[in-house]
Amino acid sequence: MGHGGDIEAIYRLQKKLPDSMMEQMRAAYQRASEMLQTVDLHREGNVMMRREFRATTMTSLGFTDTEIKGFDLDKLSSQEFQEIIRKRLGIGDTKANTSSPKQLIVSVEEAKQYVNEKGWLFKEKIGQGEVVIESPA
Questions:
Q1: Do both 31 and 54 map to the same domain?
Q2: CB 3.0-4.6 Å disulfide test: which of 9, 19, 63, 99 passes with 58?
């Protein structure tokens, strides 16, 4: 086959690698395994980046440092973190939805009463004599 040297003799004649060579190969693989893995090589770095991202997001939404320290940002699942953010923003909360602005389609004459007497806001004209108005926040 055109091979020469010790490795050819080992494979052709002995059919089994010596134990000492197996140990050397294991040690070499162990040293190189980090570069051969298909999983994240810099897991700790990514954990730190995720923690920093989450803390920055929470700070921008008005969470205090004390509130942020009350959460284990490393152990929160993505779903749990999203739920915390949704709760802070009032998204998906039934209490928050009841206080959200309501819109009505009314005639122009009705809209005048709502806007002038109740403080509703004109949004847009949608058809022949009909408009959309929104309740005050």
A1: no
A2: 63
Q: Classify residue 71 by burial, with Cβ atoms within 10 Å: 0-12, 13-18, 19+.
A: middle
Residue 61, pLDDT > 80, answer yes
Residue 1 lies in a domain: no
- Whether the predicted model's global pTM rises above the 0.85 cut: no
pLDDT higher than threshold 80 for residue 137: no
Alpha helices (runs of H) in 61-107, residue ranges in sequence order: 65-69, 78-89, 94-98
How far apart are alpha carbons 126 and 108 in whole angstroms? 11
Total length of the chain:
137
Tens digits of residue pLDDT in 4-27: 566 666 666 666 777 888 899 889
61 and 79 belong to one structural domain:
yes
pLDDT at 129 > cutoff 60? yes
Structural domain count, the chain: 3
Q: What tokens does 115 get?
A: 């806007």
32 and 48 co-located in one domain: no
